[in-house]
Fold Pit accessory protein.
Amino acid sequence: MRFSLRPQDDAFYQFFSNAGKNLVRGMEILSELAVAGADTQSVSERLVEVEHDNDQLTHDLYNKINSTFVTPLDREDMYALGSQLDDVMDHIEAAGNLVYLYGLSELPAPPREMIDLFDVLNAQARITADALPRLKGMHNLKEYWIEINRLENDGDRAYRMLLVRLFSGEYDALTVLKMKEVADELEAACDAFEHVANTIETISVKES
Amino acid sequence: MRFSLRPQDDAFYQFFSNAGKNLVRGMEILSELAVAGADTQSVSERLVEVEHDNDQLTHDLYNKINSTFVTPLDREDMYALGSQLDDVMDHIEAAGNLVYLYGLSELPAPPREMIDLFDVLNAQARITADALPRLKGMHNLKEYWIEINRLENDGDRAYRMLLVRLFSGEYDALTVLKMKEVADELEAACDAFEHVANTIETISVKES
Amino acid sequence: MRFSLRPQDDAFYQFFSNAGKNLVRGMEILSELAVAGADTQSVSERLVEVEHDNDQLTHDLYNKINSTFVTPLDREDMYALGSQLDDVMDHIEAAGNLVYLYGLSELPAPPREMIDLFDVLNAQARITADALPRLKGMHNLKEYWIEINRLENDGDRAYRMLLVRLFSGEYDALTVLKMKEVADELEAACDAFEHVANTIETISVKES
């Protein structure tokens, strides 16, 4: 067991846990786009709502950090973690919004390689949401980093193969450009999950 | 009133004020592209001049930081601020240069959404140039950060709608690609103004 | 001559020297693509091998940093340098892999501006590999930074002119998109060499 002179204010851990839940929720909504005929407007609107919830949560976290004299973790680490969790959500929301704005719903269904990216992001969201409550106590976080990094490699490979597919001649140039913008947001979300994991690793090394 | 044991060497503040003026000047020149028939070569050449002026200024700032024993602000913060102001200028210059190099002057006029981005950047340049002289004394900087962040959100929205416009089918694929490169530089300039504001916030929090 | 209370454990310097050699080897392989009819599959496969070697080397470096009580250079600087050398290799490998995956070998030969980028990268790789063994003793590193920065400027210019060429109407839209992805990796490699140089500058300033 770890002892600490710092107060273990549960409110901070609660913020991170809630942000993790929002990411799972966001990816559930985005994944509705994996089938043909999805209601892209509804997906986009619900993602905007989850993203606004998360903005508020991040804002409340920053206020709590600024108004607390002794924080359970280093101030700058909590700030970084909040900001990076928010970045993941921004990319998930952007991906859903672009599918709607570009009118990509006219396609039969996304290419398999894009669904591979959805799968990677869903897995990253779930294990991140599982790991965040374990920040309090720093339990079993190593498996989480290793798995996030493994998934990020899967995501890189899926992204690369998605571009090969997009450039194959199957789609017209404007559709390629639109889908590439969506793919770029998905890949950025994948990277952003890795940044979250790196910060959790930094915190864990400091506290251990 | 703020007291400090550090010398208030005006030369440092003067560098930042001059960099701010260069950004206003750069955006004035770039904004000439908002109307059809603009002389893109002349815009590009004058932007290169302003950018070179700014490089020299940044170089002089670094030399002054390195040769001064006690600086009025933390060395690394002044270094970051100089570098970030220079980044904004680089993106403004790049946008103007690409319009010229790609021969985009053959278009009737930029789409409205690109002019929205010019408007955001002009506003960011003006309030940044207004704020920089206030670094000495740290007066009223909070309104500046809030406004820069609000403008950056406007810029994100304008950029997103600009891509929707570019991908609408109104332009051929190569023109879309060229205009997207210009749009990316404008959006990067918008973000770079936010990085400047974040550094000024950091300085201000430390010194207060 | 520089004196230090830190142990001069040669193993660390050896890691960096080996990473430098890998970059020269990687660029030699990638440069085979400069002529028409290159065996893109073989280039890609050999680059993957060099990249895997380098991953292992970076991994070993991190383990050595973590298991050493007093390191000859600051831990975080060695970590950053290892990570940035690995980034360069990743971009070189990605460029070669994309040429193969996209089937770009059907083109007669890369445009001259892309070969200019190869030349810049070859020069950067060589002077980086020359400089890394000089980390031990911090000899003559200033000329190296200046030259890397000069080359990075050349690379920026070559990249900009490469896009002008790609957008000139000479290639169809999908080929443009494919070649732009390759160009982006080359430009990222160019920037990544500059990040390496910046870290070496930081180390050198601290240790001098």
In short: Chain B is about 75% helix and 0% strand. Chain B has one domain: 10-207. The domain at 10-207 of chain B is CATH 1.20.58.220 (Methane Monooxygenase Hydroxylase; Chain G, domain 1).
